[in-house]
């Protein structure tokens, strides 16, 4: 048997690589274009719940991106109380494989990948679906993905006003301080959902609710706004989709009936959002197969659950940059 060596990129390596905003957005854009053109395989995620869902669970995401010549499997834990022991709520590992032989090619810390690719999907959704003159962002949630939501959205829109909220005061204050340092602009910290979200141009809901609770009120959403809810447990009023001109998802295979969790879970399971009235998947819009926003008056909702293809694409970008910079290790497999 021939020798097989695996590229190993750990969390310290990923930090040293310091992917910039455009490198992240470009990698995720490539994955979306491939998906829109039918050049990906995205298997619906599966879940492993070791004890009970309120303590946490593992997500297992599987995908293939033909233009990148990689298949990948990511396992990410989602444990909401990790902050009590000084850990992020989400820790992840990505394995990349040769899609023709099954040979393992790389093991990559995917904690940062999860955060970055989620933020990139939120930002790219806004690029195609929000008003170009959007100047007020309201963001609920302060986890790792939230940072990249705000950072990449501001990179594209250069907001005049950014409002943030999180349940714990120390969490929202710390989140705002990090954003102010990195973005160089004032962040408005709110102690309630309404002050954060009402009449914003772009509303992002990345909350960590223990059970579905309708905290995001339909009446707060102004005409022409862009709404991105992606909490594991829904924070939406059931009539929110009634005011939407378009509903877009990242992948209907993961959002369709019978899947667990998600912001529009009840809307889908009770037939309010269906494959027939769905406007598009984001990849279809990014590749030009379907239109995005067509007028400033449109009110649009984008629900994303997480694309394995974007994990693969960002992992590939990290492996390629690591090779150029001689960062990481080689592990003997066979």
Automatic annotation (TrEMBL):
<dbReference type="InterPro" id="IPR003462">
    <property type="entry name" value="ODC_Mu_crystall"/>
</dbReference>
<protein>
    <submittedName>
        <fullName>Ornithine cyclodeaminase</fullName>
        <ecNumber>4.3.1.12</ecNumber>
    </submittedName>
</protein>
<keyword id="KW-0456">Lyase</keyword>
<dbReference type="GO" id="GO:0008473">
    <property type="term" value="F:ornithine cyclodeaminase activity"/>
</dbReference>
<dbReference type="InterPro" id="IPR023401">
    <property type="entry name" value="ODC_N"/>
</dbReference>
<dbReference type="Pfam" id="PF02423">
    <property type="entry name" value="OCD_Mu_crystall"/>
</dbReference>
<dbReference type="InterPro" id="IPR036291">
    <property type="entry name" value="NAD(P)-bd_dom_sf"/>
</dbReference>
<dbReference type="GO" id="GO:0005737">
    <property type="term" value="C:cytoplasm"/>
</dbReference>
